[in-house]
Amino acid sequence: MEQYILLTLFGILIGTVGTLIGAGGGFILVPILLLFYPELSPEVITAISIAVVALNAASGTLAYAKSGRIDYKAGVTFAIYTIPGSILGVLTVTYIPQQLFNIIFGVLLILLSLYLFYKNKKNIVTPEPVIKKGYKINTLTDRNGITYKYSYNEVYGKLISVIVGYISPLLGIGGGIIHVPAMVNWLKFPVHIATATSHFILAIMATVSVIVHIINGTYNNNDVVLMILFLALGVIPGAQIGAKLSHKIKSNIIIQALAFCLIIVGIRIFIKSF
Question: Model-level pTM?
């Protein structure tokens, strides 16, 4: 019983931190599972993680929907483009030799985190909307009356989403940990809109991955199902806490927290490769 209580506590941490930075929480859960359950195969670990990410993202999305910070039009478009990659990621996780991939991916995450630390020493200021062919312009006013006006290159957003869709189930880390910095630094979304919209995208993408795992029979194990259920007991309320905290924390602190998480994940993936 103690292990299930511990899983619930881990779930609260995963839900709170994952929702706060719009990353789902898989980057926390995968190392935990590797440490405490070394007997589990990579396929099962990523399957458990992506199921928890789906629950976390769904709970966080409900909270963010109330805040009025989700860009549904961009979210639906990007989510559609994550689906092909998401299905392919689940189907290839047991076949692709990951050592070289993990080394490259780990190094890229570390470099990205260092870039974010450097770039976000000061408060992030979203540039004026670009009025240009291929750019979408949007204006959102959240529940607190704050208005966000921004633009983004839709083609770049779609390409990023395809890549995120593939990496997410392959490593079981959700995908928001890549999507959020990409949306903020490359697509120029305001940070709070990016974290909320990323969670909405993640809810759709992770659910698709879970369905593919179900079809493949990955969850045909009572112990695995129990682990997911007890993690969910913590993740669901934790996601609500994370969404509430996001209203009170400055955007540059959120990005710095994300950068810190990125470097942890990058080091973990790099070390795991040897």
Answer: 0.77
